[in-house]
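A reminder before we start the practical. When you read a complex entry, don't treat the lines as separate problems. The point of joint prediction is that each chain is placed relative to the others, so the output describes one connected object in space. Small molecules and nucleic acid strands, if listed, are placed in the same frame. In the example below there are four entries. Take a minute to note the order of the lines before looking further.
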Amino acid sequence: MRAGVIIVEDDRSVREDLVALVRTDERLRLLGAFSSAEDALRGIPALQPQLIVMDINLPRMNGIECVARLKLLLPQVLVLMLTVYEDGDSIFRALKSGATGYLVKRDASEKLLDALQEVQRGGAPMSAHIARQVVQYFHRSEMPAAEAERPSPREREILDLLVKGLILKEVADQLGISLETVRTHVTHIYQKLHVRSRTEAVVKYLRQSQ
Amino acid sequence: MRAGVIIVEDDRSVREDLVALVRTDERLRLLGAFSSAEDALRGIPALQPQLIVMDINLPRMNGIECVARLKLLLPQVLVLMLTVYEDGDSIFRALKSGATGYLVKRDASEKLLDALQEVQRGGAPMSAHIARQVVQYFHRSEMPAAEAERPSPREREILDLLVKGLILKEVADQLGISLETVRTHVTHIYQKLHVRSRTEAVVKYLRQSQ
DNA sequence: CCCGGCATCCCCCGAACGGAGGATAGTCGT
DNA sequence: ACGACTATCCTCCGTTCGGGGGATGCCGGG
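Here is the predicted structure of the whole assembly.
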């Protein structure tokens, strides 16, 4: 059976090139193409693809965030990141998010199909140099959260109460501040921890503080 | 300043006796009396009492559960449990939930006021025999969850997905079942873990599985 | 002196959630 | 064969959440 493929790429002409390319390969079946991370998150789960080709540089939510979320919904899916960036940080974050391969855009037209095959065979298409960095990266246990990414003291105070199971209104009463203020703090916490729900925030917070 | 007192007792005549008793003591100020745990939970936080006299044997939610929840909202409040039960298990669960003293009902009329004073002085009004058991109890690290209290395999499967931050709809898609089914499972999980929100459930689950 | 981070408060809105019902069906042990 | 536990699906309803705005005041670094 042919492997289902999804393309996520905001540039229309590039996207159409990729779509055309995938269609030339009889081992692949193109299930769809999206032009934004948000659309991809909504549409992909129902399509149950085996492979995703994801551009990193997307408007609003980037491809790395998008892959991280998709991997929660489709743990089995194989992701090939596509990008113009070659810096180590992007590579790390992409792979950390769950991507299997990392292709530079200028190589896409000639290497995409080979890379997709390699991904399916259990490989990880990328240069030896990058592979080396990857190994080293995973030896470092945790991505050191950037300075501005850490919740402020007040925000941590609120997190502590959320961990206890209090709802927002109870947190407000407890701290003697308004519900709206708590809401704002919580929004900021979500942004800093890159999550979108209380549960995710609490789990991440507990894990970070050992 | 006089210490604010709340009474929670479902039997009207007993409740009125207690109210009258507290009113005779000029060192105390009666802030209110409730006849159910649910009403108490709704009303007490706003009253900010220093002392709570709580009956264990209440309809629906019992006094122990009620105290556990109140303690989340008012960590400073001192609780004196009132009960007809003298068995070790009730005592343990009451104190575990955050109660400071434990008075048998038949002693209430003559010892309540003294007990409230003692609680405020940092004491713990109960017999030496009980105090001994308490010490031993806290040496045992955890209350072994009853057999029927443990989530079923399917429920744990769902908990695992909730820990990852998935919302109910995503869990449903992931498991190939309907949203309603997930909702039912989650309700059962809440009942077994004695919680009322996803956050509480996830935190408790993570802590129980080390 | 201005900008960024922080803390506070407010509004709107749609989606998600939690509680309380009820229902069917399969398994398992007594 | 009967009761329990489990898993599945459903409706109704009020509350809570999360995202999107915007606003003020304080403080500290550049």
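Discuss with your neighbour: Chain B touches chain A at residues 45-46, 72-73, 162-167, 170, 173-174, 195-200, 202-203, 206 (CB under 8 Å). What might explain this?
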